[in-house]
UniProtKB/TrEMBL annotation:
Gene Ontology cellular-component annotations: early endosome membrane; late endosome membrane; recycling endosome membrane
Name of the encoding gene: ATP13A3
Function, in words: ATP-driven pump involved in endocytosis-dependent polyamine transport. Uses ATP as an energy source to transfer polyamine precursor putrescine from the endosomal compartment to the cytosol.
Organism for this UniProt entry: Callithrix jacchus (White-tufted-ear marmoset)
Keywords attached to this entry: ATP-binding, Endosome, Magnesium, Membrane, Metal-binding, Nucleotide-binding, Phosphoprotein, Translocase, Transmembrane, Transmembrane helix
Family named by the database record: Belongs to the cation transport ATPase (P-type) (TC 3.A.3) family. Type V subfamily.
The name this protein goes by in its record: Polyamine-transporting ATPase 13A3
Enzyme class: translocase
Catalytic activity: putrescine(out) + ATP + H2O = putrescine(in) + ADP + phosphate + H(+)
Amino acid sequence: MDKEERKIINQGQEDEMEIYGYNLSRWKLAIVSLGVICTGGFLLLLLYWMPEWRVKATCVRAAIKDCEVVLLRTTDEFKTWFCAKIRFLSLETHPFSSPKSMSDKLSIGRAVCLIENPTEENRQEISKYSQTESQQIRYFTHHSIKYFWNDNIHNFSFLKGLDEGVSCTSIYEKHSAGLTKGMHAYRKLLYGINEIAVKVPSVFKLLIKEVLNPFYIFQLFSVILWCTDEYYYYALAIVVMSIVSIVTSLYSIRKQYVMLHDMVATHSTVRVSVCRVNEEMEEIFSTDLVPGDVVVIPLNGIIMPCDAVLINGTCIVNESMLTGESVPVTKTNLPNPSVDVRGKGDELYNPETHKRHTLFCGTTVIQTRFYTGEFVKAIVVRTGFSTSKGQLVRSILYPKPTDFKLYRDAYLFLLCLVAVAGIGFIYTIINSILNEVEVGIIIIESLDIITITVPPALPAAMTAGIVYAQRRLKKIGIFCISPQRINICGQLNLVCFDKTGTLTEDGLDLWGIQRVENTRFLLPEENVCNEMLVKSQFVACMATCHSLTKIEGVLSGDPLDLKMFEAIGWILEEATEEETALHNRIMPTVVRPPKQLLPESTPAGNQEMELFELPAIYEIGIVRQFPFSSALQRMSVVARVLGDKKMDAYMKGAPEVIASLCKPETVPVDFQKVLEDFTKQGFRVIALAHRKLESKLTWHKVQNISRDAIENNMDFMGLIIMQNKLKQETPAVLEDLHKANIRTVMVTGDNMLTAVSVARDCGMILPQDKVIIAEALPPKDGKVAKINWHYADSLTQCSHPSAIDSEDIPVKLVHDSLEDLQMTRYHFAMNGKSFSVILEHFQDLVPKLMLHGTVFARMAPDQKTQLIEALQNVDYFVGMCGDGANDCGALKRAHGGISLSELEASVASPFTSKTPSISCVPNLIREGRAALITSFCVFKFMALYSIIQYFSVTLLYSILSNLGDFQFLFIDLAIILVVVFTMSLNPAWKELVPQRPPSGLISGALLFSVLSQIIISIGFQSLGFFWVKQQPWYEVWHPESDACNTTRSLFWNSSHVDNETELDEHNIKNYENTTVFFISSFQYLIVAIAFSKGKPFRQPCYKNYFFVFSVIFLYAFILFIMLYPVASVDQVLEIVCVPYQWRITMLIIVLVNAFVSITVEESVDRWGKCCLSWALGCRKKTPKAKYMYLAQELLVDPEWPPKPQTTTEAKALVRENGSCQIITIT
């Protein structure tokens, strides 16, 4: 394959794809058309199912630059193919595309900097995407995203907005003025309509798509075949079943589309005001917005129709749609680096990094605050499917295929059945030719054997267990939007938990404060709300340094801020719209203490007046707010006490960060020790700092100053200690999971030591277990990246590395038994920064760390997703349980994601729990295991059903007979469907057990079970078939035959003779048919009982009352019609009369069959695994899962785990391989 013709698009991203170019070939098209006619349209169906075959069969390879069709293939493990047609966007037809107005147009570059270039430059920019002279841009659409041809990179790339490659400075300098009408029209031509269009397909379209499923095509083929063979009743039954199945499927698919459409339609079209270049305002529909438009955010709020960055004013936004947090967030304008000299002028704008300044699509702006005469303005950065909400909707519309061994094995098993059918097909043809059967009958009967082998009810049977499990989950408050995942949950062997709100209570309680005076910590204080502290800088910081706001008179905001503010008992007042309009500057939010807290004193003389007035007017105005940033781990405010000349800066955040920004002399010497004492007890600690600002800093200057200029040289004031209590059920649930050998991992945004403490408290890390902290440092000043290994408990015990007692360290992990290994278990803990460095520079250590990594602290949302992927790479089946706040990506990526939040964000999670408690995790795994075992039982039963029926028909074909229409109908509807749908009803076992169900159908014990039952069934059927021929009363049956006693009632004979006037064309009625029919009917029920497994994953089958009743009823009915024939039943089922003695013989055959089948199945269950292990014992078996193989390797590795106080360095020369060496620092 020529390199020129194979390119990669979206390189390094999740949706990376290979792209190949093709041109339509007329001669190939003519050959395919001929093939379609010759195959009666089957070739067309085949090409519809296989896009790569379709393109290769009708097109020839071409250069991507000039091709008409592109073939795309994902580079992930699924290697999915797509094809797309190249379209042309003509620029000549557009009124704004004349060269004169080129400077008014869009420039579309690599990251689309969207700047107004001079005419000549702009022409070059456009030529990147357009063919040189014709001004036509080539593009194709894939998964709702347009990919344009880019001449610069000689490849297709999608059009980006202002979210990449645009600096914060240029946002203010080049984009804040707005667009001209010409430029807007040109951009709209390229970017298209700003909407997240979820088209609800018409019922007809969905029907065609559903009916063209290979399975339904096979059913259609079967039905046509049966009709030609006059099996009308059975064909009708299958048609009815298929129609019910199709209607149900269409209903659920359409319902999901409608739900998704309604979810995105809320903001699809609103009227918005945009600013144009000459400062004029224009009102347009939100669907006409393009990147670069300057939107005015209305006073009364709006549901954002796009992603936009705030450049003027402040907004209060509800982001529950995206984050799952219903807490309103304050968004401030993007810092303008050009105003402040110290600002980073070249910092690139990024919606993630600057999310505190970005308004995301679909979020609700509740309130705005603004300057007089100036509007709250935002620049549109992304539109349509490129927005954050658009990406979420795309991930739902085009989900990644679920890779699960069960489904792959199911297809493999079907192929085996097709191969068996092929043998029967050839046998039937040869046998029929030898018996000189007509050609028409040969064709029908040989094709019929295929339809018998591949059971038409298989898909319906396989989904029954999942549907029942879904219903049981709903009863216990767990809702599921992806039912296929229930089976996968049965395989989970590792569960990641978010900490706050998941393992611990949602809210934090204020435990107390510890102030600093004269660089020494005072004793902790519980009550902050007292007269002594009311005017202290410490309380002033608690009163002002927050993002609280009043919405309809109620204080709301971050729960932590809310708890802090409530603890001091102050009052917050915000300026009204009228007040804001009267002043030339923004009116500050004011906080003041309640009057009863202010000290009351009545000294004599002239002091009295001053002291009387002072308390009455003691209030603080919040002048400027720098919102909390998870990247910076802090927030700060500039405030002024009423009447003071100088302003104050207050800051709060992560203690380590705050201490680093304070004057070293103000930080107590024992700061680290005090902090660790609190964090090790599981407290959440926040540090406060303060400094007086220079008097030259005026109000206006403060509005434009960068946060770096404020957040330095502070005075350390002390710590606020918050308590985050464990949820009551957490320890018990984690203990259940540990007993079931399911690993638990904590992934949190909280402090490392707090996380380790909570992990110990809840039993995730046992008291005797060791915790090794991996602190990874990126390459710096020419030095390579390195990891320092610390010992969690020793961090506080000593200040010098050599003082560590070497006996406390698990130096070697080579053990004679697993019991010893359990005694010296160790866990790795690391923060998000270290995790990123390890992923980048120490790839060979990642699997080892995944094996024992238990605590991951300070993890950003994307790092949580990377962790899930890293765990999956070592073959763990990973569950993720989070409150949906910042876990969306991880919940989506995990094999089983459970959201404890019922908000719209849970649309990203396959499972949502109604009760915000982790007790849903073991419940889900139990139900998953039950559903998985049910799937195995059903699959084994359906396989046996098809083989038993296949063998019955093959035996009867040998004497040119077959099963009758009503016999097929009775077996398939009365026995098979009833058994399948009731055997799936077994509820889950009441507790989690250590053993895990098999993940695939192709396992030794399972195959042995199926093969042994096949041999038993074939053996007993053959016995009956050949033994009946040896009976003294046997003759080739004809209408006058009567092997029964002639003394029988005349009614029996007369009824038979009357109905036998017509000749039996298909030779259904004979002794062999009757014998095979009775024995096989019992065999279906025998294997159903044998395969209906109970413990340890499901409740015993005798507790499944529907199944027990159905089986008993069917046994009784078949036994009754076998031993005491009813003429009307015999007539319908086309059964012939056989002597009573033969009926008893058949009963004995059936009883022996039942005894052998159930005994063999029980033996396989008990000793099958042991026997297989013994048989394969000669060759040492390597564990299939990577993590198990790795665990074996690490057991004999003397270098692992790394000894504390050692350092691992990345090798500079071979860094791309992630190799590393261990250097012990003494």
